[in-house]
Amino acid sequence: MRGHPLSYYVDRLPATWTTGDRGHSFYPPFINVQNLTQQEQAEQMAVIVQQAKEASSAVERIGSKGFPWLLEQIGQEVPVTQQWLSKSPPWIQNQLLKLDIRVSPTPAYLKRWQSVTAIRKIYRTRADVTPILPGLLILATNSDPDIKLAARFLIGQIDSARLDQLEAQEKLDAVQK
User: Fold this and answer.
1) CA dihedral in degrees (160, 162, 165, 170; nearest 10)?
2) What residues contact residue 143 under an 8 Å CB cut-off, 6+ apart?
């Protein structure tokens, strides 16, 4: 779209954030506000908001053609070293930040939840999302809890009855074990 791949636009979307209770809010793309005045911060945020609007429009136009790539991003595993760093004690994280090493959110985490935002935007255009459900159902059983959460969140947004069935089947399987 306009000479840019889907990834370009997804990078400019806010990341959906959920606690797993089917509710959500948005986490804006990361901006480094260190050493910026309030005016500069406001200007940067205005640019981010405008980029997000343009990205939303592009993602909606790309539509379901972007589903394969978006599913791949949701299922992208976080390297073990990044998992370890993101769970390390605050004093280690503070030392890493002094060295300009970002600990959280990891790039894979951020891209996952920006991809969730993209799928939700496509869904709101009334596009046919049934082709993505089998992939989401597979990701909903992933061993990575965040991948599982992202997939289940989307299934709940798209087809809450399907999510209820999935959760009921898991409870049944747990009882039978």
Assistant:
1) -100
2) none
Q: What is the 3-state secondary structure (H, E, C) of 68-96?
A: HHHHHHHCCCCCHHHHHHHCCCHHHHHHH
Domain positions in the chain: 6-176
* pLDDT tens, position by position, 152-167: 999 988 888 888 888 8
Contact 119, 132 (CB under 8 A): yes
* Residue 42: alpha-carbon gap to chain centroid: 25
Q: What is the pLDDT of residues 101-148, one digit of tens each?
A: 544 567 788 889 899 999 999 999 988 888 999 999 999 999 888 899
DSSP 8-state class, residue 2: T
For the chain, what percentages of helix, strand and coil (3-state, to nearest 5) are there?
A: 65, 5, 30
This prediction's pTM: 0.73
- Cα dihedral 7, 9, 11, 15 in deg (nearest 10): -120
Question: CA–CA separation, 154 vs 120, rounded Å?
Answer: 8
Cβ(77)–Cβ(108) below 8 Å: yes
Query: Distance between CA atoms of 82 and 102, rounded to whole angstroms?
Result: 10
